[in-house]
Amino acid sequence: MKKSKGYTLIEILVAFSLLSIGLMGIIPLSLTTIRLNSFQNQMLNARYLAERHSEFLRGVSFNAPELANDGNNEDLDDVAQPDHAIVSVIDNVQYTTMWNIVENADGTRTVMIIVRWFDARAHTWRDYRLTTVKSQFEL
C-alpha cells in the first residue's frame, strides 16, 4: 500500500464542517456585540446632551425663560407634555432633550432633564434622565 501525501475528500469535508460549526457560534456573538456597542454609543450621546444641557441651565439666571415652570408641580418626569424641549441629531439618531421644572418650598427649583430617542435596533424608546437643583442664590 502506498503512503498518501494529501488529504482525502472526507477529511476535507470534516474539517470544513467543524470550521462551519465554530463560525456559526461566533457570528451571533459578533452581532450581539455590535448591537450592544450601538446602544452604548447612543447612551453616551444621551448622557452628553443631558450634561451639556444641565451645564447650560446652571449658567442661566434663576428667572430665565428656560427655567419657567408650566404651573404643574406634579410633572417632573412628564415626557408627553414637558415644560421645554429641543431636538438634536447625532449619528443619524434624533434625540429629544426635554426638561421639567418643579418649584420647591425652599425657593429652589428641581429640574429633570430627559433625553429620549428611538433605538431602531431594539425597536423601543430609550430615556436618559438627569436631575439637578437650581437655586436663586449664586455661590
Summarize the structure.
37% of the residues lie in helices and 29% in strands. The chain has 139 residues and is an alpha+beta fold.
How would you sum up this structure, described in words?
The chain has 139 residues and is an alpha+beta fold. The protein has one domain (9-134). It has one helix and four strands, in the order αββββ. It has one helix spanning 9-59; strands spanning 84-90, 93-103, 109-119, 124-134. The chain has a four-stranded antiparallel β-sheet, covered by helices on one side. The longest helix has 51 residues, at 9-59. The chain is rod-shaped and about 95 Å long. The relative contact order is 0.15. The mean pLDDT is 90.
Topology:
Layout: H1 9-59, E1 84-90, E2 93-103, E3 109-119, E4 124-134
Antiparallel strand pairs: 1-2, 2-3, 3-4
SSE string: HEEEE
Structural class: alpha+beta
Beginning-to-end CA distance, first to last residue: 95 Å
Q: Please list the strands of the largest sheet in the order they lie side by side.
A: 1-2-3-4
Q: What value does the average pLDDT take?
A: 90
For the biggest sheet, the summary is:
4 strands, antiparallel
Strand content: 25-35%
Based on CA atoms alone, the radius of gyration comes out at: 27 Å
Number-wise, the strands total 4
- Determine the number of helices (DSSP H or I, runs of at least 4 residues): 1
Rough outline: rod-shaped
Helix content: 25-40%
The number of domains is: 1
Return residue spans where pLDDT drops below 50 for at least 5 consecutive residues: none
